[in-house]
Design a protein that fits this description.
221 residues, mainly alpha, two-stranded antiparallel ribbon, 9 helices, 2 strands, 77% helix, globular
């Protein structure tokens, strides 16, 4: 084999490995290009609007990343978000207190995750089966509770949780979700900070190395 052919083979091998390792970047660029071509012109405000709406899913994806690194999966995160968010609206309508609502959201979300963790880690049920079941359970509870609460408060039966308080009572929290710093959404900046923290934890801490080890070989780890 000639030297030039060998170099070309090495270059192609390196390129193919790079594509396999960073395929998510290629997919992101392709999706962004399709958006730019199909929209009525690529604008900064439109891009930041997508960034804001994608931030919540991105933050959830970071937690999902830890689960996937261990070789497991969690199908219930979307339903868990719907149930937790809906019940948090009810808690705020009752208490009219942002901190109490945030504390409830954190504890309830942790409890839902703990249910999945106990069934998978201690009962030794397959994660796919457990989270598929809890996905349906959480989603059903979210819809059932919402319809009955809405019927009791407004005489309807909507599947949308409603804030019955005035906007002024939760303006700081509303501003956190819709506010911007130098035209960049606050929730987007939170996603960036969370991503940096996630990278640090998974690459520079003992916990992160243990997660990788479990994903590679649970018995060996």
């Amino acid at each position: 084999m000639k030297a030039g052919e060998k170099r070309n083979g090495v270059s192609l091998g390196v390129f193919s490995r790079w594509c396999g390792e960073f395929s998510f970047i290629i997919v992101f660029v392709l999706i962004f290009m399709v958006y730019a071509l199909t929209s009525n012109g690529l604008t900064w405000s439109g891009t930041m609007n997508i960034f804001r709406h994608s931030a919540v899913v991105g933050i959830i994806g970071l937690g999902m990343g830890l689960v996937c690194m261990t070789g497991e999966i969690d199908l219930s995160v979307g339903s868990m978000l719907a149930l937790n968010s809906g019940l948090s609206v009810i808690v705020f309508n009752i208490t009219d207190h942002i901190l109490v609502t945030l504390l409830f959201a954190l504890l309830f979300g942790a409890a839902c995750g703990l249910i999945n963790g106990l069934l998978v880690g201690y009962v030794k049920m397959p994660a796919f089966i457990v989270t598929l079941a809890t996905m349906l359970i959480f989603r059903s509870f979210a819809q059932y509770i919402c319809q009955h609460i809405d019927k009791a408060l407004a005489g309807g039966g909507s599947s949308v949780y409603r804030m019955i308080k005035e906007l002024s009572s939760y303006q700081p929290f509303y501003g956190l979700g819709n506010g911007k710093i130098f035209t960049v959404p606050i929730v987007g900046l939170i996603l960036i900070l969370m991503t940096a923290l996630f990278v640090y934890i998974t690459t520079s801490t003992k916990y992160g190395k243990k997660v990788y080890a479990v994903g590679s070989n649970a018995k060996g780890a």
